[in-house]
Amino acid sequence: MKKISVIYWSGTGHTEKMAQALVEGIEKEGSEAKLLQVSGASLDDVKNADAVAFGCPAMGAEELEEEEMRPFIDQSKEVIRGKKTLLFGSYEWAEGQWMKDWAEEMKEAGADLLEAEGFIAYDDPDEDALDDLRMLGKDLARA
User: 125 — phi, psi (to 5°)?
Assistant: First the structure.
């Protein structure tokens, strides 16, 4: 049974809803999911997991949340090499460039991305997006 950490930051609840759908898929596949807000996560939650999912909405000029998520991601890049990783988040404006930039940054750090450009949902994720995330959770558990 794989141990998978799902670590996220959510301001409106949209990314949290996405994280919960991922956990449902992971657990349906028989793996153990650890759901953590980034404020309660530690580097050990990344190091000790078989796979990890990071969630963060687009903020400001299409960036990661700067107070908690950005510093955590910067630390995580030290231990992410070779680890199966999924990036996800929601956005309400622009084209989702923050996710493409984040995916490129994580690839450069050596993460083995499940989805090459991450998974994004517009605004409050609809049931189709949540179903896609449940499937991605299963895929992450099987990877």
Answer: -60, 130
pTM: 0.97
| Distance (Å, whole) CA 112 – CA 51 | 9
Cα–Cα distance for residue pair 128/133, rounded to 1 Å: 9
Residue with structure tokens 């992450």? 140
Are the C-beta atoms of residues 53 and 22 closer than 8 Å to each other?
A: yes
Strands (E), the chain: 3-8, 32-37, 51-55, 84-91, 112-113, 119-122
pLDDT at 94 over 80: no
Residue pair 4/49 in contact (Cβ under 8 Å)? The answer is: yes
Question: SS3 for 24-52, per residue?
Answer: HHHHHCCCEEEEEEHHHCCHHHHHCCCEE
pLDDT mean over 103-115: 97
pLDDT in tens, 52-87: 999 999 998 889 999 999 999 999 999 999 999 999
